[in-house]
């Protein structure tokens, strides 16, 4: 397979961890350790991205909050 | 041990521990078996960042939170508003979650948007309104609505209809305590903290009717409002404590204190008068109305500094390579900043009286200065004078606020009390806001983490 067509790559994890995961996924919907590891990493990244999101207020909400904070004396 | 924390935004030691204590039987009973006293707040002594300083043991500089708003990318005008996701440091509830311990948080600022915690969370007063998701887990919202209907996050106190304000604050507080009592019975927790913002709003809205030393003091039907609100808190706290088991440590704490406002100082007007700021539309200042900073046509090529108002003032320098049209070179930054600091410190009152003005450089008061820090932080006359960022005022000394009635300002000392299950006697102490997180962690059995947060 040519390099540019590759969809997967290899990462290393400790053997002990690999065994632990292998046991954990037995009888579950996960078909392989790779499958499970991909799932977990995606979950973690999604939650990190959620936390790092800068815009938490919509424009309208931000205006509302600013107006309130101004009325409360925090933004003079 | 489990810990229950009662947060009373802006409660000052003078009122809670002394002036009103005889009218507060439940709090008095608790203090009789507590270590208690004044707690020195952080700089700035403001709700955001103070509650998170308390919960993380970190300085505003480490948190990168210097108030409610911050500049976006050194912009002259664009700002961002502090919210929960901006708090990156670990708080008490994050440390204990690592060992599976659960927390409940209600109204601890900033906690909107609701962050994932090991337990339950109801967000704080920066929540836009009750139509948004304001709980973690999100299903908790319907439980709260089922309990109290429309939950109230905050009330706007700066309006003239004081009766309406009163009614709203009472309703908000009663609902909050109902939610607190529900959660403490229905959900699991090792650490419980809630913050009642109503006290801060009551202080600001009714101080001039209460404090005979206030320059606008008005005796009348509102003179007992503040005392009555403390009585309401005492009643609600008493009802709440009945549901706590004997093995729970109970703490009362505030983020800062409160005192009478002497006035507001129009800092940007002063900067223009002193030649530190130049504007092109000067006629606007003669229009006889209040002018917002955003309306100014600032001649940035000839401006050294501008400022934000609030309970304290932030002054920004116009630095070459940092601001879009910056003019202060790196090599002259220190001397310009010193000059402005000295000029600000020498500002006297309207009648020439000496002011106890404090000016801080962020790098000098924090070990690290993350985020969008100001160049100077100013407490005019030890916070007795707030700062007005607006302009167009006939004088730099405003007797009243520039944005609606408000009679109080912050003071540096809030309160702290702690009743341990086995304690039977009271003891007077004085602590710092930085002691709070390590103390709580120690009570919860996290000694190592507590030791790492302790400061000398």
Describe this structure in words.
The complex is a heterodimer of chains A (76) and B (456). Chain A has 76 residues and is an all-alpha fold. Helices cover 58% and strands 0% of the residues of chain A. Chain A has one domain (3-71). The termini of chain A are far apart. In chain B, helix 7 (162-186) runs parallel beside helix 9 and helix 8 (198-210) packs antiparallel against helix 9. The model of chain B has no long low-confidence stretch (mean pLDDT 95). Chain B has 456 residues and is of the alpha/beta class. The two termini of chain B are 26 Å apart. In chain B, the strands form five sheets. In chain B, strands 1, 2, 5, 6, 7, 8, 9, 19, 20 and 21 form a ten-stranded mixed sheet that branches. Classes of the chains: A mainly alpha (76), B alpha/beta (456). Chain A binds chain B through residues 47, 51-54, 56-57, 61-62, 64-66, 68-76, and chain B through 46-47, 67-69, 80-81, 83-85, 112-113, 115-116, 126, 128-129, 132, 154, 156-159, 201, 204, 264, 308-311, 386-390, 401-404, 406.
């Amino acid at each position: 397979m040519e390099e540019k067509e590759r969809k997967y790559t290899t990462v290393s994890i400790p053997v002990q961890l690999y065994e632990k995961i292998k046991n954990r996924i037995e009888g579950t919907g996960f078909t392989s350790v790779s499958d499970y590891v991909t799932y977990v990493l995606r979950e973690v990244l999604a939650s990190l991205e959620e936390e790092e999101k800068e815009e938490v207020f919509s424009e309208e909400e931000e205006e509302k909050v600013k107006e309130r904070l101004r009325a409360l004396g925090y933004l003079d | 041990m489990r810990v229950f924390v009662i947060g009373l935004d802006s409660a000052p030691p003078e009122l809670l521990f002394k002036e009103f204590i005889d009218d507060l039987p439940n709090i008095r009973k608790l203090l009789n078996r507590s270590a208690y006293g004044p707690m020195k707040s952080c700089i700035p002594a403001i709700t955001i960042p103070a509650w998170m300083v308390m919960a993380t043991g970190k300085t505003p500089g480490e948190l990168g939170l210097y108030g409610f708003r911050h500049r976006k990318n050194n912009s002259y005008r664009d700002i961002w508003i502090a919210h929960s996701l901006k708090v990156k440091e670990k708080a008490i509830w994050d440390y204990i979650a690592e060992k599976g311990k659960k927390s409940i948080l209600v109204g601890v600022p900033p906690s909107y948007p609701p962050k994932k915690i090991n337990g339950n969370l109801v967000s704080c007063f920066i929540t836009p309104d009750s139509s948004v998701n304001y709980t973690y887990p999100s299903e908790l919202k319907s439980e709260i609505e089922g309990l109290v209907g429309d939950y109230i996050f905050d009330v706007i106190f700066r309006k003239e209809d004081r009766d309406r304000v009163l009614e709203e604050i009472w309703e908000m507080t009663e609902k909050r305590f109902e939610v607190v009592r529900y959660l403490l019975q229905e959900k699991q927790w090792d650490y419980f903290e809630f913050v009642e913002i109503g006290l801060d709003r009551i202080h600001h809205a009714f101080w001039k009717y209460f404090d005979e030393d206030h320059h606008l003091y008005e005796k009348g039907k509102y003179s007992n409002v503040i005392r009555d609100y403390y009585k309401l808190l005492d009643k609600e706290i008493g009802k709440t404590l009945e549901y706590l088991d004997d093995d729970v440590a109970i703490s009362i704490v505030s983020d800062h204190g409160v005192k009478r406002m002497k006035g507001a100082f129009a800092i940007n007007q002063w900067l223009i008068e002193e030649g530190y700021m130049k504007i092109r539309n000067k006629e606007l200042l003669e229009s006889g109305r209040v002018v917002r900073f955003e309306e100014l046509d600032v001649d940035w090529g000839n401006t050294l500094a501008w400022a934000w108002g609030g309970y304290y003032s932030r002054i920004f320098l116009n630095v070459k390579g940092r601001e879009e049209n910056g003019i202060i070179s790196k090599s002259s930054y220190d001397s310009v900043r010193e000059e402005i600091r000295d000029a600000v410190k020498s500002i006297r009152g309207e009648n020439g009286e000496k002011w106890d003005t404090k000016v801080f450089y962020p790098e000098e008061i924090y070990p690290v200065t993350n985020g969008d820090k100001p160049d100077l932080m100013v407490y005019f006359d030890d916070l007795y004078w707030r700062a007005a960022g607006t302009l167009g005022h006939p004088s730099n000394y405003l007797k009243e606020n520039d944005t609606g009635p408000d009679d109080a300002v912050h003071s540096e000392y809030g309160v702290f009390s702690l009743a341990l299950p086995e304690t039977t006697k009271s003891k007077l102490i004085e602590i710092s806001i930085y002691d709070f997180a390590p103390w709580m962690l120690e009570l919860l059995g996290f000694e190592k983490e507590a030791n790492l947060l302790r400061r000398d």
